[in-house]
Specification:
heterodimer; A: 304 residues; alpha/beta; Alpha-Beta Plaits; 2 domains; 6-stranded mixed β-sheet; 4-stranded antiparallel β-sheet; 29% strand; B: 262 residues; mainly alpha; 2 strands
Chain lengths: 304, 262
């Protein structure tokens, strides 16, 4: 097995005049969690579908698990598990039937699937729901079943398109916990997300996308240090322009987004002193995160 | 580009079976309602037209009208079953249910899915067509052994109309467009192709058109088999039907690739 799980080089895709993926290159090493981070419409899902051979690039080369894609994508997909953005489980089937039917798509015999099912149910915490219809499951349970289904063929690589979008915080944490377990078992994960927190918690490395273009790549911590490298004070209320001229001497950088002023300050105390006694202001001091990186790189906040 | 089309063709001779079994499992859960629904329409036609018109018509080519009609109804019900399974159920699996999307993320290809869907629609056509044939045989309008001979022809009819309907759903933006195919292609074929009256009663121009239509070839194979009469031009009929099954099959895969994998 090669140590590079996914290799994209100069991949470009457009629909009519609209360029969706613009000369993108990145490589995902075996065993790492690689994130594609960007707002809706940045091209994340298109890239995930390209990796699976479901969208052909206009130009550029792609290799996935050693197979040229899309030409031999089928052979790559035999060793990939997919968690799609929208659930596509068999609603009328039971949990067990879903796994059985999916196993058959990988040419697994009934006996092979039966042997794999108990561990998958345990992984997804669905042991007691094995014979329940999918229609009866909660949103979080459905996502966990989708994840278990993606593991039926014991894949080397998992491709996950926004795996926690639409889940409540508890269900989201349950998915994150399971993804970390999978990484500990040596699986490779390609994850698309627009949740900064998700990217920060899970990804070894990530690629920040905007309008199909890579605007930054690296480890989350390193990106934050490199782009921001200091504390952040969020200031709500007041006139952002007046305030920014007031604190500018003490800030490394200031961004205004909507009615919020983001002040990146090496010495936050200095800034707070300037603002003390001003009525109607709400202040929040916090460490920098990926959200700040995105704001810094694009000049706008990530849409939610 | 050619490489792109090669990648979506059926990957091997057995991948499609998994798709067929998926549909079979789903059908088993609603089998009773499905069977009744599929049989009611052709039975009504068979008895309504058979007894009602039969009195007026008398004998056709030496057989009673209802026995003549039975073969036509078997072919027609195979056509309808395969067409509707594909147009409505397979279209739903492609669109609303996202079943195809799930399958495309496994090692199956688009071609495997289409082949599995065709085999499944043909299976439903065999169920529907054979059920009519069994009723006809029970009432003495066909010989029991003849049902066995007609099953391959019924299956082929199912494949043909599933394959044609695949092209329709690969192009149709929504369910609303199916009605055009139904009213402009499927229904006229019933009357043009000798299902309810002999093709020879039509003006010769219409007869020539009928000779090009797939249902006419199905009727020409199924009716003589059921009546125990010698059939002419079997090779021609089978060849025409095979063409109608195979060409739309490949065309639909190419069209689905454009639609789903862009």
């Amino acid at each position: 097995m090669s140590t590079v799980a996914i290799d994209l080089s100069c991949v470009r895709k457009s629909y009519g005049d609209k360029i969706v993926v613009d000369g993108l290159s990145f490589a995902v090493a075996s065993g790492e969690c690689f994130g594609l981070l960007g707002p809706n419409g940045a091209g994340k899902s298109t890239i995930a579908r390209m990796v699976l051979g479901m969208v052909a690039p206009d130009t550029g080369k792609m290799t996935v698990l050693g197979e040229p894609v899309p030409a031999r994508a089928r052979l790559a997909r035999a060793r990939i598990g997919v968690v799609p953005q929208f659930d596509n489980l068999e609603i009328e089937f039971t949990v067990r039937e879903n796994l059985l039917v999916f196993g058959r798509y990988f040419n697994m015999s009934a006996r092979e699937v039966e042997a794999a099912v108990p561990a998958l149910l345990e992984f997804a915490r669905l042991e007691s729901k094995a014979d329940a219809r999918v229609a009866e499951l909660s949103g979080g349970m459905k996502r966990r079943l989708t994840l278990a289904r993606a593991l039926i063929n014991d894949p080397h690589l998992l491709v996950m398109d926004e795996p926690t979008t639409g889940l409540d915080p508890h269900a989201r944490h349950q998915i994150w916990e399971r993804l970390r377990l999978l990484l500990a078992r040596g699986k490779t994960i390609l994850l698309t997300t627009h949740f900064m927190e998700e990217a920060e918690r899970l990804c070894d490395r990530l690629c920040v996308l905007e309008a199909g273009r890579k605007i930054a790549e690296g480890e989350p911590r390193a990106l934050i240090d490199e782009q921001i490298g200091c504390q952040v004070i969020e200031i709500y209320g007041g006139n952002p322009h007046e305030l920014s001229s007031l604190i500018r001497p003490y800030a490394r950088h200031i961004e205004v987004s909507g009615e919020t002023l983001f002040c990146y300050a090496p010495d936050p105390e200095q800034v707070l002193v300037q603002l003390r006694g001003r009525a109607g202001l709400r202040l929040l001091q916090r460490p920098a995160n990926l959200e700040d990186v995105f704001l810094r790189l694009t000049g706008r906040e990530m849409e939610r | 580009m050619r490489e792109g089309y090669a990648a979506v063709m059926p990957a091997n001779a057995y991948n499609w079976v998994a798709v067929w079994r998926r549909n079979f499992l789903a059908w088993r859960k609603v089998a009773l309602a499905s069977v009744l629904g599929n049989l009611a329409d052709p039975m009504t036609n068979l008895f309504g037209l058979g007894f009602g018109l039969g009195v007026i018509v008398g004998l056709i080519d030496g057989t009673s009208y209802i026995a003549f009609l039975a073969g036509g109804m078997v072919a027609t019900s195979a056509m309808t079953a395969a067409t509707f399974e594909t147009m409505y159920a397979a279209f739903a699996r492609m669109r609303a249910q996202r079943t195809w999307e799930a399958i495309l993320s496994t090692q199956l290809t688009l071609g495997d899915i289409v082949l599995g869907e065709l085999a499944w629609a043909a299976t439903k056509a065999v169920l529907a067509g054979t059920a009519i044939a069994v009723v006809a045989a029970t009432l003495g309008y066909a010989a029991w052994a003849s049902i066995l001979y007609s099953i391959p022809a019924i299956a082929l009819t199912g494949l043909v109309f599933a394959s044609l309907a695949m092209v329709v759903i690969s192009l149709a933006p929504s369910y609303d467009y199916f009605v055009f195919y139904q009213t402009l292609v499927v229904t006229p074929m019933v009357f043009l192709c000798g299902a309810v009256f002999p093709v020879s009663q039509m003006p010769s121009a219409f007869q020539r058109v009928a000779g090009l239509l797939p249902l006419a070839h199905s009727v020409e194979l199924i009716r003589p088999a059921m009546l125990g009469l010698p059939a002419g031009g079997i090779g021609l009929h089978i060849g025409a039907l095979c063409m109608y099954a195979v060409l739309p099959f490949f065309l639909s895969i190419a069209l689905f690739r454009r639609r789903l994998m862009r």
